[in-house]
TrEMBL record:
It comes from Pendulispora brunnea. Residues 31-53 are annotated as: Disordered. It comes from the Bacteria. Keywords: Signal. Residues 1-19 form the signal peptide. This is Uncharacterized protein.
Amino acid sequence: MRRAYFLASFALPVLTFFACGEGDGIAVFPGPPGHDASLPREDASSSDAGVQDGNIVDAGYDAAGDGGWKPPVACGAALPGPPLAPNLTEAEPGYGEQLAQTETAGVPDPFDYGGQSEMMRAVVHYMFEEPADRPATATRAQAAEHENMGRAFLASAARGRDGRLDVPFLRRGLHYHYPCSRPLPATLDELRARYGDYRTWSDETIACSKPKNGPRRIFANGEKGIFVAETLVDAGVRETEVIFTRLRNDGQLDFAAYTAEGQLTDRSTFATNSGGTITAAAPYICMTCHLNSTNGGFTTLRPTGTGAGCKDAGP
């Protein structure tokens, strides 16, 4: 008997007409009058080992189970997929050149980012792959340990004003460096080679997924800590999104999105409140709704308030 899993909403709606929270750079676009930011989630009735109330728990957690895998692409590599919405922060071109031109010698050591929003503090911790409860300060030595992400942090600090981070530049740095810093499978074929064929795992089909405004098929393997969601369009798969729960030293989630052809991408498409779609940057769009406000980390597998689609599908 196949079990129903709760991951129907794990790759979450873009912030057009929807925001999971307010703060530094979180609400990318304003919602229209009357927008309800507490839309019901699409969770099913059961959870799996290592998960409690939609969050990762310690039981069975295998820290940094990366198998010695390396990041799949070089930093700044052009990944396939539909174009990002042009008014998104991450859509601004030229990050690599701007990073190279940014002088960081004047950044205080240590740099205190405690005045940033909860979300931005969590993003920095995530970039440094360190626990969410760590102090909101970082030294140059700590930044150097994290190479690409460390350079992105220092450049954001250098470009900020009044002792604060340049949040758009930090987000662009996360987007630029994430695929070259995390040991994600480069293709769905590689995902299956590492973990087995997810299409044989326990699965559930959602008739109308609110984040996608259409059907979605979810595969889950709690033992491996992998959760896969396929967006179904015209009997085919438009994109596949994957959550990894055991790749990191800090116990947080890693996110990956794949094109219809099974290639790693750095974006994904979601429903908007107007009935259309928008393509947003991953992993940031995923992170905005997977933040656990209790522990300050990206550990929530089952967020609430997700999805702008399926308005006629009922609760």
